[in-house]
User: Fold this.
Amino acid sequence: MKKQLAVGVDIGGTNSVFGFVDREGKILARGRISTALHDSAEELVKVLCKEIRKLQQELGEESELVGVGIGAPNGNIRSGCIEFAPNLKWKGIVPVANYFETDLGCPATLTNDAKAAALGEMLFGGAKGLNDFLFITLGTGLGSGIVVNGELVYGHDGLAGEMGHAILIQNGRLCGCGRNGCVETYCSASGIRRTYLEKSCLAPDAKIDSKFIYEKALSGDRDAMDSFTLTGEWLGQALANSVTYTSPSDIFLFGGLAQAGELIFTPTRKSFEENLLNIYRNKIKIRPSHLAENEAPILGAASLAWKKVKHTNQYE
Amino acid sequence: MKKQLAVGVDIGGTNSVFGFVDREGKILARGRISTALHDSAEELVKVLCKEIRKLQQELGEESELVGVGIGAPNGNIRSGCIEFAPNLKWKGIVPVANYFETDLGCPATLTNDAKAAALGEMLFGGAKGLNDFLFITLGTGLGSGIVVNGELVYGHDGLAGEMGHAILIQNGRLCGCGRNGCVETYCSASGIRRTYLEKSCLAPDAKIDSKFIYEKALSGDRDAMDSFTLTGEWLGQALANSVTYTSPSDIFLFGGLAQAGELIFTPTRKSFEENLLNIYRNKIKIRPSHLAENEAPILGAASLAWKKVKHTNQYE
Assistant:
């Protein structure tokens, strides 16, 4: 009997990564190509599929593709399209899932990267067996995957889970979306950068990133330490608000900023409890994601395919 | 064959109402008793069940109870208990669903009043066939029922859907929950009362209610009209935030304040669109509930029982 494998593909602004993932969430082989080198999505998918087939041959043992999952910015599960992604070369609405299905001859499922990672946490990470949780990625922005009754929340249009764009502070910081005070202008890698620049009176174009601030904080720099504390306070407030909607049992933090460990978790948990409505206090856990930073994009994407298989089997 | 009927019971701080509801959402008979006259929940339920049996006899034709649904403040579907309801006489955690089951000998389901009404809207009102919507009650506070993938969101502890206690304005108005700036301190009958008192410089204990403000606004009073506009602006902001979590197709407004019609809907819709993240614009409808104000508590509660029956039949 052939070994069943899913393919996970993560399309990023600079690079795209892909890999073969077995039913237990082990990545058996992986590869990477440049996204930016390809002018159209159709061309990118063609090259990706060629590489995927090559990798499948290299794997040696005979395998059967159960499906391909794709995580991508502005990926919409309902349409299978990448819709108006600001950081990708091609514009408009592109039927990427369809391109993969045609080329690889197996089912393809596409959603955005944060939702895919949330699913990865549920199938292969710390959220196994949980029915209601939040998954938050603290990258350049703040992405979120919301799980309710054991299912990802996609919303009527596939675009649920944008809590990075809930307003945290009225008339607050200008956001990339054109509005003011969005959660992600405070709680993200770029948010903590803005906070640190304000604190340390550096020029807005200073060449520093959140890793620099992390190292500064470790070395005892007051502005850097304060920036983590403030970011945690804001994040705790934002999460306390989010709990009033779906009352999750656990909140997982993922991404560069979550790697800062207690520097970010301690002030976040403290502020979270202080800002919670009483009925939610002392029972919701804020935890680091169990997914490795370099595996999550492939695992998350592959879990889209595995989820589909398991759903289908359920009704066989 | 006996006619199948569900019983809907709504336990309020002053009165409790109950009625028999058929599969199509028609109330065939109804009654009311005082809640406040009874010192314990057990006694209240005993009297309610007696009245329900009496009413069943009066109905004439032979009927079979498929179940009883109960809407109550702080009702928790997971435990079947009313938990620490501030406006009821008895304290602590009371197993009300259990009392009904024992007395009436049919399945009992309990949840809070806003969630019950949301279910009523889905089974018998304007949300038939909708999979993702919000139901908002604008009463003394702001209650909410969130529907995702065709199911009410209860959360890990049964306490989801408290968006009235998301923070709208940092360090804003003091809320009954002890925190500041909760949505319901601005967007509710008591919220518009506070707004009107501030605008008109009346004393905080002035004997006016939202109905008074409504009539003032109709007669052209500037402060009253401004109060509706401001309330709508805040509500539009709050709803724009809420959309980022579950991306509903429709938002239903219910309750006294929603009865004010265009006085509240026009500024709410305007502010909502202005404050939405671009991907959600021009596609989410804010609509009045289709449930009659005096029928919703019974219909909502009865729909808990009908929902259960339909779920069970599905897997027969």
Observations:
- The mean pLDDT of chain B is 94.
- Residues 222-246 of chain B form the longest helix (25 residues).
- Helices of chain B lie at 41-58, 96-104, 113-124, 189-200, 210-218, 222-246, 262-275, 296-314.
